[in-house]
Specification:
The complex is a heterotrimer.
Chain A (H helix, E strand, L loop, with lengths): L1 H4 L7 E14 L2 E14 L3 E5 L6 H8 L7 E6 L2 E2 L5 H7 L3 E4 L13 H12 L4 H14 L4 H4 L9 H13 L5 E5 L7 H18 L2 E6 L2 H7 L2 E6 L2 E7 H6 L4 H9 L39 H5 L5 E4 L2 E3 L10
Parallel strand pairs in A: 3-8, 3-9, 6-7, 7-8
Antiparallel strand pairs in A: 1-2, 1-4, 4-5, 9-10, 10-12, 11-12
Helix pairs in contact in A: 4-5, 4-7, 5-7, 7-8
Chain B lengths: L16 H6 L2 H18 L36 H37 L1 H16 L2 H12 L3 H28 L2 H8 L4 H37 L11 H8 L8 H27 L8
Chain C lengths: L6 E12 L2 E13 L4 E5 L6 H9 L7 E8 L2 E2 L5 H7 L4 E4 L3 H4 L6 H13 L3 H14 L5 H5 L8 H13 L5 E5 L7 H18 L2 E6 L2 H5 L4 E6 L2 E7 H6 L4 H8 L40 H5 L5 E2 L6 E2 L16
Parallel strand pairs in C: 3-8, 3-9, 6-7, 7-8
Antiparallel strand pairs in C: 1-2, 1-4, 4-5, 9-10, 10-12, 11-12
Helix pairs in contact in C: 4-5, 5-7, 7-8
Classes of the chains: A alpha/beta, B mainly alpha, C alpha/beta.
């Protein structure tokens, strides 16, 4: 069973996604944004989810949080099925799982003060009284490197992108969650600020004992913070495995393509004439069989007829490919 | 390595200087007139004015004098008093009717824009039906059926304004509901009511307010038109519109009888428009300024 | 410099009046680009690189005040009259912007936009323009070019749209192409293709090119010279290999170090630059980078360093405490 095969993270996965399918309707047709995806995240680890635009990684993140209704499949958080929950039970669960977005400025209500914004989760969860809440807000704002007295009374537009992202992180952490999904948290930030925020996330993870699902399109960023990495293409998982291993010895041709395409800031590394062939197919009509076959130099008839399944090719490393770059070991 | 990157000193006040720049003399003149006319209308009974209904048949169409500052009208009534009492009516209808529109239309629009789906189609569809009726004819039909009264007039004008406010509220909500801060609130487990009231309403409020002021201006004109035709407020209540209508007969002898209420209406409508426009220009929350 | 530069930006400053005070977007910048050479301008948001490119193109906002000279092909663009400037733009001087969705007119077909440019500058007739457009689309790697002529921008993917934008830019054989963040909005696999395309076309046409980007990786293998901008000034300029191996300005080094590397192990802490860029409406008296620089000393806070020559030809930097040792291991291959 595929689920057993994935249990490389055997002990006690905090999050388990099983055969998740998320659709959206475009002009009468149903398109799979996430197509039968299964993965696990162990307690205390950071799983990086990487892929280009349209691969469904953000949709997956939202579906895990039940912000998008899944067509089928289950999401188990700490053993409890989130997909079956409604109303109050679901709201209670939300205290334990939080989300950080890509655009830090758009994530904050432009008409509310920072103090109110960061206290909002506490108010919704009914934690403490006003005094206690203020104390918690101050504490978490200091933890993310902002001076509470200078920040709490102001409005979001008075801050830069990096500062807004710190505020968003503070808001996500104020309830002391166990699991945080970071959806492209640094893509909208400048290079020098990016590094600050990544360091901050690592700090916070250690301090609060968090488990992270880190979604991004930038492989180097994902590698910097992840223990394991999952690569998505057009709604399907291509490869999953320990970060170091996957980047050093990618099994799936798409992973190799992504790694090769990264512009390296080293003038001696001549960028090879990219082997990237063609454009990603439209999600409206994905190719049959393996979705990557239209751009893959190794594709053959089998790739068009048969959908490849994730199989273990190296210890802990899985790829869904009929002709992987590393032989099954 | 949590570093403090805030470059704001205690002494700095991040005052949005752009705001003061745009409130030029024209804006303040508009505010001045609006305050003046609202105050005059509200305090009309306290002002030392002759009664607007006292007819003095010997002093008909009398020119401006110390006794009658703006003269008298065709039935010998003091023009200034009529003007100010007429302001009461025009402003009452002008302010109350849009309130109905913004309350009902705004609420429907926000709900439609937030919940989408079939509810939205229903709301938008009903508004389209309402809009399909020629407004003036509908107003006439209602007043003919239910009788001419201040209340009926206000209500029908209010109802006619609902689709426009619904549109504005829905458009504002549609753009906002996509934004990440709303999704963030959902991710926190906020109820729909909380999101609508705490997250969306503060952001939709200002565009609605700006539109409301423009709606006031439009309503004053529409009420004026109806009253001019004799189909608005019933006599003896008179508004600026009916004053203009009556002044029409005296155009050769005393044109001021038509022009004075017209000018008052013009200034009031212009002022509301200016204030509404300025508010609209100011309602964009700054996105990192420069 | 043996040959006269095609483009010479001389002591250009751009000021923008804003409600918060005067904003000095570009501060006394000097740059040159020779024919057939590629210059990379690197900097983060707010450093003035976009304003600089607008200054070269003379497309600044109305309220902006420009001082200095922009010599292009012997003419000072700042003094040039509107009509001659318009003829230059698109013909000899072309631009590719960041977001192809907004740089292409959404209500006109691709064909119309291409043909329009060709007819305007090269005065080709309809049939000749159509032929040339098809050739151009094929040259930029768009499959089935004849069909594409009749399509609208929204029917194409982001990468395709950017190729079309490049085709339009190249259509009149420009002498200089300015690419302002051409790949920032695109996926990384498409990014590589687009950059390859630009490099290829540049070699073929012996065109000068300026690539503006925030990504040091983009300029590393594809430019002859790099200029690093910070807070409106050029703080370091050098031939590309020299810049990466032997950078002098602490900002350049910090910028490079802050980029996560694909060959670094996971969870390696990134040497982040603390603080953030200065507010351009409140320029600092001394070096703009001083508050964030770990080498900053008294002089750095009082005086602005000017570009001075380093020991290697073509290498200039603006710093009182430059890093003089070659870059540490881990940067070079």
């Amino acid at each position: 069973m595929k689920q057993d095969v994935l249990r490389s993270v055997s002990r006690d996965p905090l999050l388990r996604v099983q055969n998740l399918v998320v659709e959206y309707a475009v002009g009468g047709k149903a398109i799979h944004a996430v197509s039968d995806v299964s993965l696990e995240v162990a307690r205390g680890e950071t799983l990086g989810l990487v892929g280009e635009s349209g691969c469904g990684k953000s949709t997956l993140g939202r579906a895990v949080l039940q912000l998008r209704r899944a067509e089928s499949g289950r999401v188990l958080f700490d053993g409890q099925d989130l997909t079956a929950m409604r109303g109050d039970a679901l709201r209670k669960m939300r205290r334990r799982v939080q989300l950080i977005f890509q655009d830090p400025i758009a994530s904050l209500n432009p008409r509310r003060r920072i103090g109110d914004i960061v206290a909002e989760p506490l108010v919704i969860a009914g934690v403490g009284d006003a005094g206690k809440r203020e104390e918690l807000v101050r504490e978490v704002l200091s933890a993310v490197g902002l001076d509470p007295s200078l920040v709490m009374g102001r409005l979001p537009h008075e801050f830069s992108g990096g500062q807004c992202q710190r505020i968003c992180i503070a808001r996500a952490l104020v309830l002391n969650p166990e699991f945080v999904i970071c959806d492209e948290p640094v893509s909208a930030l400048d290079v020098s600020i990016r590094a600050q925020i990544l360091n901050l996330l690592e700090d916070m993870k250690a301090r609060f004992g968090l488990t992270l699902l880190f979604i991004a399109h930038d492989l180097a960023v994902v590698k910097a913070v992840s223990d394991r990495v999952a690569v998505m293409y057009l709604g399907r998982l291509c490869e999953v495995g320990p970060a170091e291993q996957v980047f050093a010895h990618p099994a799936h041709p798409y992973t190799a393509l992504l790694i090769e395409a990264i512009p390296v800031p080293d003038p001696d590394v001549r960028p090879a004439e990219s082997v990237a062939v063609g454009e990603p197919p439209s999600p409206m009509s994905p190719p049959s069989g393996c979705r990557f076959r239209t751009r893959c130099p190794r594709a053959d008839q089998r790739c068009s007829d048969e959908v490849p399944q994730l199989r273990e090719l190296a210890p802990g490393q899985f790829a869904a490919c009929h002709h992987p770059l590393i032989a099954a070991g | 390595m949590a570093t403090l990157e805030l470059g704001i000193d205690e002494g700095d006040v991040v005052r949005p200087a752009g705001r003061t720049r745009r409130l030029g003399p024209l804006f303040w003149a508009a505010v001045g007139w609006t305050v003046f006319i609202l105050a005059a209308a509200a305090l009309a009974s306290l002002l030392p004015l002759p009664s607007p209904t006292d007819m003095d048949m010997l002093e008909r169409r009398a020119p401006m004098s110390l006794e009658h500052w703006l003269g008298t009208d065709g039935l010998g009534r003091d023009e200034l008093a009529r003007l100010i009492y007429g302001a009461r009516i025009s402003l009452t209808v002008g302010l109350c009717a849009p309130v109905i529109g913004v309350a009902i239309g705004g609420a429907l629009g926000m709900l439609a824009g937030y919940f989408r789906g079939r509810f939205e189609s229903l709301v938008v569809g009903s508004m389209d039906v309402l809009l399909a009726f020629p407004p003036l004819i509908l107003a006439l039909a209602v007043t003919a059926f239910l009788g001419q009264s201040l209340l009926n007039l206000t209500c029908i004008l209010g109802v006619l304004g609902i689709p426009a406010f619904m549109r504005v509220a829905r458009a504002a909500t549609l753009t906002l509901a996509r934004r990440e801060f709303v999704i963030a609130a959902q991710a926190l487990g906020a109820t729909h009511a909380r999101i609508l009231l705490r997250e969306l309403l503060p952001n939709v409020f200002l565009p609605l307010l700006a539109f409301f002021l423009l709606g006031v201006a439009v309503t004053i004109v529409v009420e004026g038109a109806l009253s001019f035709l004799g189909l608005g407020v019933p006599p003896p209540i008179s508004s600026w519109g009916s004053m203009i209508g009556e002044g029409r007969e005296s155009l050769e002898i005393a044109p001021r009888l038509a022009f004075i209420p017209a000018i008052a209406m013009f200034l009031t409508v212009l002022s509301f428009n200016l204030i509404g426009d300025t508010l609209r220009a100011l309602t964009d929350p700054r996105q990192g300024a420069l | 410099m043996t040959e006269a530069a095609l483009l010479s930006v001389e002591d250009v400053s751009v000021d923008l009046p804003t409600p918060r005070g005067n904003l000095r977007a570009v501060d006394h910048v000097d740059l040159t680009v020779g024919a057939g050479r590629t210059l990379g301008i690197v900097g983060e948001s707010g450093c003035g690189k976009t304003m600089l490119s607008r200054a070269v193109l003379q497309l600044l906002p109305k309220k902006a005040k420009l001082s200095g000279r922009v010599m292009f092909d012997g003419q000072d663009l700042v003094r040039l009259d509107r009509e001659r400037l318009r003829k230059l733009r698109g013909r000899s001087l072309a631009v590719v912007f960041q977001d192809p969705m907004t740089s292409l007119n959404p209500v006109l077909t691709i064909g119309t936009q291409l043909i329009e440019t060709l007819q305007e500058h090269l005065e080709l007739d309809g049939a000749a323009a159509k032929r040339r457009s098809t050739e151009l689309l094929a040259a930029v790697g768009i499959p089935a070019p004849e069909q594409r002529l009749a399509q609208y921008p929204h029917q194409l993917s982001g990468g395709m749209r950017q190729r079309v934008a490049i085709a339009i830019a190249l259509s009149c054989e420009p002498k200089l192409l300015i690419a302002d963040e051409p790949t920032t909005a695109l996926d990384v696999t498409i990014q590589a293709q687009i950059l390859d395309l630009l490099a290829r076309e540049q070699r073929r046409r012996h065109m000068a090119m300026i690539i503006i980007t925030h990504d040091l990786g983009v300029v590393a293998g594809r430019t002859d010279e790099v200029a690093v901008m910070y807070a409106g000034r050029v703080v370091e300029r050098a031939p590309t290999p020299l810049l990466f191996k032997n950078m002098h300005m602490p900002y350049t080094q910090a910028l490079l170090a802050a980029i996560p590397r694909i060959d670094a192990a996971p969870h390696t802490p990134l040497p982040a630059i603390s603080g953030r860029p200065p507010d351009p409406t409140r320029p600092l008296q001394g070096c703009s980078f001083a508050p964030r620089c770990r080498f900053a000393a008294g002089l750095c806070h009082r005086e602005k360093p000017v570009l001075t020559a380093a020991e290697s030809p073509g290498h200039q930097f603006a710093c009182f405490h430059p890093i003089l040792a070659p870059a540490p291991a881990g940067v070079s291959a």
